[in-house]
Structure formats: structure tokens, C-alpha cells
Amino acid sequence: GEVVKGFGRGSKELGIPTANFSEQVVESFPSSISTGTYYGWACVGNGDVHKMVLIIGCNPFYKNIKKSVVRILPYFKDDFYGEILSIVIIGYIRPEKNFSSLEALISAIQEDTVEAKRQLDLPEHLKLKEDNFFHLPEGKTINH
What CA–CA distance (Å, rounded) separates 123 from 144? Predict the structure, then answer.
């Protein structure tokens, strides 16, 4: 789906670069997907495929009302609002929960990132990085 501006908390407040999907994309996720933290692979446009952490939920720490999907990104120099972000969710890390402080939230995201990297380095997950899904013919898009 298309990358849109979020609340502006990721890089600024948390020190963790993020990308956000539009409400339309979030609403297209299957209702059977539980809120929580996931890991998988992601690609911006036709670029390289990167490890990701994906958070699906209302983010109780910030008391959001609507469900959102936020992707934790590796470092990118430039914004890429309007670009298509393709993702493949591989596994589940933990359920959504509230945190007592901003520091506890940041610590949990850092732990989630370590776990995601560990899981994605497993051979059965590493091979999905090369899936044809990420290498669509020019002009073809999925699910946006």
C-alpha cells in the first residue's frame, strides 16, 4: 500500500524510523489478524527488500482510537511518502500492550527488532526475501 504521513512520532519522539499505511490499506487487512507485533519483509517501490517489524493496533500508549499499521524501517535518507510499500508478514512476536513510559515503549520496540532479525535470519524465512512478490513487472501493483 501507499506510504502516508503518520502522527510524526516515529523518528522524532521514538528515534525509530517508521512508515504508515493509509486507513484504506489498514481496513483491507483481514479481520482475523490479531493486533500486536509481527516480523517480515518489506520493499519500497522496486527497491531492495529489508527486514521489518510491523505493529498492528491502536497503540494504547498514545490512546489512539483507530487501528493503524506501522512498519519499523531500516534507515532511509529520504522520505518516501506516496511510494508503494510491499510487505510479507512472516510471524508473530507479541500481542499489543500498553507501556508505563516512553522509555519502556522504545525498549520493547528495540527488543522486537532484535527478535525479528533473529527470526528472519533463519533459512526458512530468509528464502522468502527473494519471493517474486517483491519483483513485480513494471507498472504492476498489488492491494492498494
Answer: 30
